[in-house]
Inverse folding.
């Protein structure tokens, strides 16, 4: 068996090898932990100041974990490093914003990144592959698979979730029904109002599916979560540990990733669902729905706001569920390993400044 290399060897030369993120909140810490280990980089975080600016410009190798956090500083540092002949790589999480029209500065952002693409020794990588989002090629050098799609794979095996008291309680409560989990902070922009309205209109869904919402509830979402409780959803309103999150993905038949149209950002939940073998419910027309279709990932696409369609899909999932159609564990692990290798190859080349052929990625 061939072992996949999990780190990029660090040469014995002077100079820092850094990965930078403004903060470590949310999934940023996961990005830092995963990518610093793979590429042998030292994590650095904090708001930009003159000392940090000089340090990042002077680093021998540099990866921006999320260039979206501070685009002005990123552009200035990338420009300075290009003049000095130093390679810079950066992940572009929301490249799609360059092509939207909701804000006056979106066109300016698009033009700015078109200019940045011409800088020598710079690699900007969209976390959506170009075959899914072709226009991203206008503002990035390459498209890669979001680390949240493959970070549970170590290069040889795909981690399996364990059980927790919470997951065991959910299984007992389901009593043979399918389980649909909405996981993470239960905010209103995650499409939960659409789900609650569907349950109110079609209460028979509860005969087939247990709806679970697991995560803290912000104040703006209390009304929507109260709606879900009122239609027999199980709501766990508290901080959910990593072990508990993984255990819920492990026992879920479906995971809610049908976020509202103005919040096309369900990649973390979608990625966990794919890695753990749960079937994500996606919004028809979203980036993740397009990604799933193109990559042969089983998912349940639904037009946002179509309550009858969602109700039918949920009840059919229970009565016509065919586990044999799902990707088997080994097949899923092989697919995800390929996504991981592609990311390492392309970002590794950008960090080191070697092997990057403009327009070929």
């Amino acid at each position: 068996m061939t072992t996949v290399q999990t780190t990029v060897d660090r040469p014995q030369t002077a100079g820092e090898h850094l990965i930078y993120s403004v903060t470590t909140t949310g999934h940023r810490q996961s990005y830092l932990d995963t990518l610093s280990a793979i590429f042998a980089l030292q994590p650095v975080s904090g708001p930009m100041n003159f000392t940090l600016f000089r340090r990042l410009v002077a680093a021998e190798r540099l990866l921006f974990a999320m260039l979206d956090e501070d685009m002005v500083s990123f552009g200035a540092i990338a420009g300075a490093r290009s003049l000095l002949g130093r390679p810079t790589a950066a992940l572009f999480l929301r490249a799609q914003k360059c092509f939207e029209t909701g804000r006056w500065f979106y066109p300016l952002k698009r033009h700015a990144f078109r200019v940045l693409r011409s800088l020598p020794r710079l690699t900007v990588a969209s976390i959506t592959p170009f075959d899914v989002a072709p226009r991203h090629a206008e503002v990035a050098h390459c498209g890669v698979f979001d680390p949240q799609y493959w970070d549970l794979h170590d290069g040889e095996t795909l981690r399996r979730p364990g059980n927790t008291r919470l997951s065991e309680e959910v299984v007992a409560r389901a009593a043979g029904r399918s389980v649909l989990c909405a996981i993470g902070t239960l905010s209103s922009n995650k499409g939960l109002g659409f789900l609650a309205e569907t349950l109110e209109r079609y209460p028979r869904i509860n005969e087939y599916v247990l709806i679970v919402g697991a995560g803290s509830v912000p104040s703006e979402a209390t009304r929507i979560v109260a709606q879900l409780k009122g239609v027999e959803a199980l709501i766990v309103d508290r901080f959910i540990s990593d072990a508990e999150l993984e255990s819920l993905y492990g026992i879920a038949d479906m995971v809610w990733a049908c976020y509202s149209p103005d919040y096309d950002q369900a990649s973390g939940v979608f990625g966990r669902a794919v890695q753990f073998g749960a079937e994500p419910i996606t919004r028809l027309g979203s980036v993740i729905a397009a990604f799933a279709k193109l990559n042969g990932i089983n998912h349940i696409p639904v037009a946002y706001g179509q309550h009858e369609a969602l109700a039918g899909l949920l009840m059919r999932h229970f009565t016509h569920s065919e586990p044999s159609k799902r990707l088997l564990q080994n097949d899923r692990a092989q697919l995800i390993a390929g996504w991981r290798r592609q990311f390492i190859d392309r970002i590794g080349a950008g960090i080191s400044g070697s092997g990057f052929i403009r327009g070929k990625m």
Notes: The domain at 17-144+336-352 is CATH 3.40.50 (Rossmann fold). The two ends are 28 Å apart (CA to CA).
